[in-house]
Amino acid sequence: MDFINYFNLYNKKYIKKKILLYNIMPPKLYNKYTKGRYESEEEMKRFRKIKDNQKNKIRYWKNKYGYDLNFSDYEEFNKHIHVIKNIYDVHDFFINWNPEDPISNSDLPMYVKKHSDLLEAYKSKDYIKTLKKINKSYSKTEDAPNQTNKYIVEF
To answer: Of 31, 39, 47, 153, which sits most exposed with the smallest number of CB within 10 A?
Structure first.
C-alpha cells in the first residue's frame, strides 16, 4: 500500500468519525429542556444553577420528609412546604383526619402538639393527599440494614 492510498484511507475514516461526532454531540449552547439554544454562556450558566438548585432541593426533601418527588412536583411542593414541614411525621393521621371527627385517646397527645399545624395544613389537604411516602425500612435512630454492629470483647 503506497502512501497516497494509505493517506486517503485514513482521511475517510477520520472524516467518518468527525461526521459521527457532529451528529451525536449537540451544539455548545443547546438547551435540552426547551430543545432550543441559549442566548449566551451566562444565560446557560444561570439556568444550570437554577436546575442544580432544584435538583438539590428535591433530593433534600426526599431524604428529609420521605416523599417521592420529581421535577414536575417541584413548583407545587415548594408552595406548600411551609405546612408540610410541620406535619410530614403525622402524614398517615392527617390524610384520614377530619376536624369534625372525635380524636381517639391514642392520638390525643400527638393531636395536642400538632393541633395548630394540622388546622393550617387542612387548607392544603388536597395536594398533600396526592403525595406518596417512601417506605423506609429503618428510622434515623436505628442502624442502616447494611451496617453491622461492632463489639469490643475484653478478656
So the answer is: 153
Q: How far is CA 134 from CA 68, 79, 112, in A?
A: 6, 21, 26
Identify the residue whose cell numbers are 411516602: 133
User: Among residues 100, 126, 97, which one has the least CA distance to residue 111?
Assistant: 97
Q: Is residue 58 part of a domain?
A: no
Number of domains within the chain: 1
Asked if the model's pLDDT at residue 13 lies above 90, the reply is no
Three cell numbers written together for 117: 399545624
Average pLDDT in the chain: 80
Instruction: Tell me whether residue 21 is in a domain.
Output: yes
Q: Out of 8-22, 27-41, 81-95, 141-155, give the one with best mean pLDDT.
A: 81-95
Is residue 17 predicted with pLDDT exceeding 80?
Answer: no
Query: Where in the sequence is the domain holding 17, given as residue range(s)?
Result: 1-28
Give 93's Cβ-side CA count (13 Å radius).
21
Does the pTM of the predicted model rise above 0.70? no
DSSP annotation of 30 reads: E
